[in-house]
Design goal:
Elements (H helix, E strand, L loop, with lengths): L4 E4 L5 E3 L13 E3 L3 H5 L3 H6 L29 E3 L1 H7 L3 E6 L9 H15 L3 E5 L3 H13 L2 E7 L4 H8 L4 E5 L3 H14 L3 E2 L5 H4 L5 H9 L7 E5 L4 H15 L9 E7 L4 H7 L25 H11 L3 E4 L1 H15 L5 H15 L8 E6 L7 H4 L13 H7 L1 H4 L1
Parallel strand pairs: 5-13, 6-7, 6-9, 7-8, 10-11, 10-13, 11-12
Antiparallel strand pairs: 1-2, 1-3, 4-5
The chain binds pyridoxal-5'-phosphate and zinc ion (ZN).
Length: 409
């Protein structure tokens, strides 16, 4: 669907579907408006099922139309039954949504796929972003495919894997001497002065809708059911809010019968403004200065933090935080039980999943989906000292038998 209208999430004021993102009256965020009643009259399940194996199968509930010649085909990642991890945690119906299977190996390809199509529609020539790493990577790749110029802004000190992987696509990379929140503020200022498509600033109402596809896909992969619980990593909070929205849109349009999903948010203790507010029963988010190995989640002033809080509380979920040590344990646990090597954000998800299991948040037969949103190869330096190290031997049978056999057991 091509959106025609935006609406303020706070006061309801309507705007034309332009590159606008903030309400002039109340500074609330703008959201795309859909005609759910009209959509409910269409055979959506079969429309989705016959669509491409990518985010674009859900085009009817997306704000822009697919542009085939620039499509990198993000999405349709595997939903893996996690039997061995589940046994470890006492959960019989645990699934991992492995969203590291994407063109640039993180969920950001979903949101950028939408944003690039929107940038084309609005006639932008430069596409840009404020990023904690994965977004820059995705913007650079999708811009290359679309033949757009890209300028990505990152805070100093990101993981090498993210910077090198981004550089491969040839964008302009601007490393800002400051943290993500300062980068983001700078980008908002630039977007006021220059006609650039900042995917997560002036295109945010379109971009963020891509997150819904992680709700749509899981419901479809569960044969059109909403899970009982989801565990979602939280940086700005957009992804969590949009997965929840996606599940409810499926209900509103008659695609799934009910949604009673408890929505849990996962943060790193070194950057946990939402988890702290949740624990202290506050409504307002107190900004923090991030200090964590989970750099992709290191946003100290999360734009959607208040909505995350509201959704977790309304659905009976929790927002928890885990330490850097627990993050590394989570990465190892997932790799060693399921063969999936995730980045630090995935370690946050698995750490919080484990904490929730230990505090009895799940019944043994609940259907639980944990979102693993990025690949481990981009955050090697955060974990390299904590992983199994090679043993070195001479190329002789004797050395092998002396040093290796008992290790294998
Ligand atoms: C960006 C990102 C998230 C979540 O981001 P939100 O800002 O909360 O939408 C989660 N995991 C990874 C790996 C990311 O890069
Ligand atoms: Zn408003």
């Amino acid at each position: 669907m091509a959106a025609t209208t935006l609406r303020c999430r706070e006061c309801g004021t309507l705007y034309p579907a332009d590159p606008l993102y903030v309400c002039e009256r109340c500074f609330g965020p703008l959201e795309v408006v859909y005609d759910y009643d009209a959509l409910a009259g269409q055979p959506l399940r079969s429309m989705f099922a016959s669509g491409p194996r990518s985010i674009w199968r859900y085009e009817a509930l997306l704000p822009v139309e697919r542009v085939p010649e620039i499509d990198l085909q993000p999405g349709w990642s595997p939903l893996v039954p996690a039997n061995r991890l589940g046994r470890e945690l006492g959960l019989r119906r645990l699934y991992i949504k492995n969203d590291s299977i994407n063109p640039t190996w993180s969920f950001k390809d979903r949101v950028v796929g939408i944003a690039v199509a929107a940038a084309r529609q609005f006639g932008f020539e430069v596409i840009a972003c404020a990023s904690t790493g994965n977004l820059a990577n995705a913007v650079a790749a999708h811009a290359a495919r679309a033949g757009l110029r890209a300028c990505v802004f990152i805070p100093k000190g990101l993981e090498r894997g993210k910077v090198v992987a981004t550089g491969a696509y040839g964008p302009t990379i601007v490393e800002v001497e400051g943290n993500y929140d300062e980068v983001n503020r700078l980008c908002a200022e630039i977007a006021e002065e220059h006609r650039w498509a900042f995917v997560n600033v002036n295109l945010r109402p379109y971009y963020s809708e891509g997150g819904k596809t992680l709700g749509f896909e899981v419901a479809e992969q569960l044969e059109w059911q909403a899970p009982d619980h989801i565990v979602v990593p939280v940086a700005s909070g957009s992804l969590l809010v949009k997965i929840h929205k996606g599940l409810h849109e499926l209900h509103q349009t008659g695609v799934i019968p009910t949604v009673e999903t408890r929505v849990h948010g996962a943060q790193a203790a070194g950057c946990a403004p939402v988890a702290s507010a949740f624990a202290e029963g506050r409504e307002d988010i107190h900004p923090v200065k991030p200090q964590t190995i989970a750099r992709s989640l290191a946003i100290g002033t999360p734009a959607d933090g208040r909505y995350v809080l509201r959704i977790a509380r309304e659905t009976g979920g929790h927002v928890l935080a885990v330490t850097d040590e627990e993050i590394v344990d989570g990465i190892r646990l997932l790799a060693q039980t399921e063969g999936i090597f995730t980045e630090t954000a995935g370690g946050v998800t698995i750490g919080v999943l484990r904490a929730l299991a230990e505090q009895g948040a799940f019944r043994p037969d609940d259907v639980i989906v944990a979102y693993v949103t990025g690949i481990g190869l981009k955050t090697l330096e955060a974990v390299e000292d904590h992983m199994t190290q090679p043993v070195t031997i001479k190329p002789t049978l004797r050395d092998f038998e002396r040093s290796v056999l008992e290790l294998v057991g």
